[in-house]
Design a protein that fits this description.
single chain, 118 residues, mainly beta, globular
């Protein structure tokens, strides 16, 4: 069974940092791209970062040079290191596994709250 479980969210001051984790049991990283998305109150869910099945990474412009996505393949865990946090980074952050073929289902975690506030 596939399960994505996020952790590491919390309350942090502007300029601070957090590291989110996504425990991805049952996911084969060789056939899934791993993404982080976020959804702020009253806004649509938006893409944050991707680590592809081929280990390429990409970021939304709003987080580039501040956030880093990485994977520990042995531990089946995806991380999102978030530095220099801003008020506008406040959101629920979701881990997503997107199959690289159309016959593969996508999976979502339950989300973890990140609040940036002074």
């Amino acid at each position: 069974q596939v399960q994505l479980v996020e952790s590491g969210g919390g309350l942090v001051q502007p300029g601070g940092f957090l590291r989110l984790s996504c425990a991805a049991s049952g996911i084969n990283f060789r056939i899934y791209n791993m993404n982080w998305y976020r959804q702020a109150p009253g806004k649509q869910r938006e893409f944050v970062a991707i680590s592809t099945s081929g280990d390429n990474v990409n970021y939304a412009d709003s987080v580039k040079d501040r956030f880093t996505i990485s994977k520990d393949k042995a531990k089946k865990t995806v991380f999102l290191q978030m530095n220099s946090l801003k008020l506008e980074d406040t959101a629920v952050y979701y881990c997503n596994a997107a199959g690289i073929r159309e016959d593969l289902p996508d999976y979502w975690g339950q989300g973890t709250q990140v609040t940036v506030s002074s």
